[in-house]
Design brief:
Elements lengths: L6 H11 L1 E4 L5 H7 L7 E8 L3 E2 L2 E10 L1 H18 L4 E7 L1 E4 L3 E9 L2 H18 L2 E7 L5 E4 L3
Parallel strand pairs: 1-5
Antiparallel strand pairs: 2-7, 3-4, 4-6, 4-8, 5-7, 8-9
Helix pairs in contact: 3-4
């Protein structure tokens, strides 16, 4: 699964709209620098990584698939809503698409605000809303059983 934009365009979209998809490793340092703001005393981030198990199954790897245009539209709306709902200055979220290995970052979220509580609250809300609303699905591959398709909340 590949996205239709270049890597630089995907990062520019994340900086402008607050949300993007990537089909290569997420550069969390690059994203962190996009959020530098001297008016903000708080920076909160979340990295969702591929783990080696799901329930009782031993996970070897997974692949994320997504409906790119709809995901970008919904992601932009989620970030805009977070800015209205919480007292934050900016937020960026990126979700990986394609094949990922154990330990790879699947989703990265960063939020900056003047104070810590809005940043923490917004970061969690953004993650929960992305997991519930963004059209991304994953196929998990297991050590001793057939692969399974799961929703992004699975």
């Amino acid at each position: 699964m590949r996205i239709s934009r270049s890597v630089d365009d995907a990062y520019a979209l994340a900086q402008r709209d607050g949300f993007s998809l990537l089909d290569i490793a997420i550069d969390e340092t690059r994203l962190r620098h996009m959020l530098d703001d001297d008016s903000c005393g708080a920076f909160v981030s979340f990295e969702g990584r591929v783990r080696n198990h799901n329930n009782a199954s031993s996970v070897e790897r997974l692949t994320y698939y997504g409906y790119e245009n709809l995901a970008l539209n919904q992601g932009r709306q989620i970030i805009a809503e977070a800015k209205n709902k919480f007292e934050i200055t900016h937020a960026i979220a990126i979700h990986r698409i394609g094949a990922l290995e154990i330990g790879d970052i699947a989703v990265w979220i960063g939020v900056v605000s003047a104070h810590r509580y809005p940043a923490f609250d917004a970061c969690r809300w953004i993650l929960d809303t992305i997991k519930a609303d963004i059209p991304v699905w994953k196929q998990e591959y297991y050590e001793n059983e057939a692969s399974k398709w799961l929703s992004n909340n699975g």
